From TrEMBL:
It comes from the Bacteria. It comes from Bradyrhizobium iriomotense. This is ABC transporter ATP-binding protein. Residues 4-235 form the ABC transporter domain. GO terms for molecular function: ATP binding. Involved in beta-(1-->2)glucan export. Transmembrane domains (TMD) form a pore in the inner membrane and the ATP-binding domain (NBD) is responsible for energy generation. Belongs to the ABC transporter superfamily. Keywords: Amino-acid transport, ATP-binding, Nucleotide-binding, Transport. InterPro entries: AAA+_ATPase, ABC_transporter-like_ATP-bd, ABC_transporter-like_CS, BCAA_Transport_ATP-bd_LivF, P-loop_NTPase.
Length: 235
């Protein structure tokens, strides 16, 4: 069974201005699935729609066999989808530990055990648990944002450009952490500007163009395709 199935979804920021014009998108268990495409194609909009920040005007969004399209973000989070937005994804004036508590807000129970598990996964956060988040490096802040997502023990984690603004070394480390999340059983939906590197760690890729599916397939096949490379991956 799919973890997530988006079927023919239409959504946008205002009535009559639809950004997604009938998108299909599937994530299976233990898959990393990339969404790439030109600027403005609707990649972030697709993640926001799945996470419940935008309401689809048509189509279906299924988490396993439960229809979640149109539900509110906290409910979607409770059902097992965690969304890590590109920006403003940690509280700079709170400590690392307090940020983890905020990440568990919708789960409410076993917060301490959940935080311990998140810090087990990212030991650097345990070392820095009493530091304010704004004092972390860019890469550590992104780890914290992902750790906050883990607090609800999601089945599916949606990451919107997690390596934006990171050094190449920090980006490579973060990609390694994303693989580790898959290895512990999480399914991952990943939007990245850094398309080639993201595709290289992913199982399948969807190319979105102007709010529509353009190409999809195993990432290694798309990476090896000269035409796709030229059109969408900068040559
Ligand atoms: N909050 C918003 N209100 C209105 N329109 C928006 C909003 N956010 C994005 N858009 C518009 O939706 C369209 C798709 O944007 P989106 O951010 O989903 O694209 P993207 O594929 O993620 O692009 P990028 O790679 O540039 O981030 C763009 O035309 C953008 O201007």
């Amino acid at each position: 069974m799919n973890v997530l199935a988006v079927e023919n979804v239409v959504a946008g920021y205002s009535v009559g201005d639809q950004i997604l014009k009938g998108v299909d998108f599937v994530v299976k268990p233990r898959e990393i699935v990339c969404i790439v495409g030109p600027n403005g194609a609707g990649k972030s909009t697709l993640l926001k729609t799945i996470a419940g920040l935008l309401r689809p005007s048509q189509g279906r969004i299924l988490l396993a066999d439960k229809s979640i399209g149109g539900m509110k973000p906290p409910d979607i989070s409770k059902f097992g989808i965690a969304f890590v937005p590109q920006e403003h994804n940690v509280f700079g004036n709170m400590t690392v530990y307090e940020n983890l508590e905020m990440g568990g807000y919708v789960a409410r129970d076993h917060i301490r055990a959940r935080a311990e598990a998140a810090m087990d996964h990212f030991p650097v956060l345990r070392q820095k648990r009493r530091q304010l988040a704004r004092t972390l490096s860019g890469g550590q802040r992104q780890l914290l944002a992902v750790a906050m997502a883990l607090m609800v023990d999601p089945e599916l984690i949606l990451l919107d450009e997690p390596t934006a603004g990171l050094s190449p070394v920090a980006a490579t480390e973060l990609f390694g952490e994303i693989i580790r999340l898959r290895d512990v059983g999480k399914a991952i939906g990943l939007v990245e500007q850094n398309a080639r590197d993201a595709m290289a760690i992913s199982d399948r890729t969807y190319v979105l163009v102007d709010g529509r599916n353009n190409v999809e397939g195993p990432s290694h096949q798309l990476l090896a395709d000269k035409e796709i490379s030229r059109k969408f991956l900068g040559g």
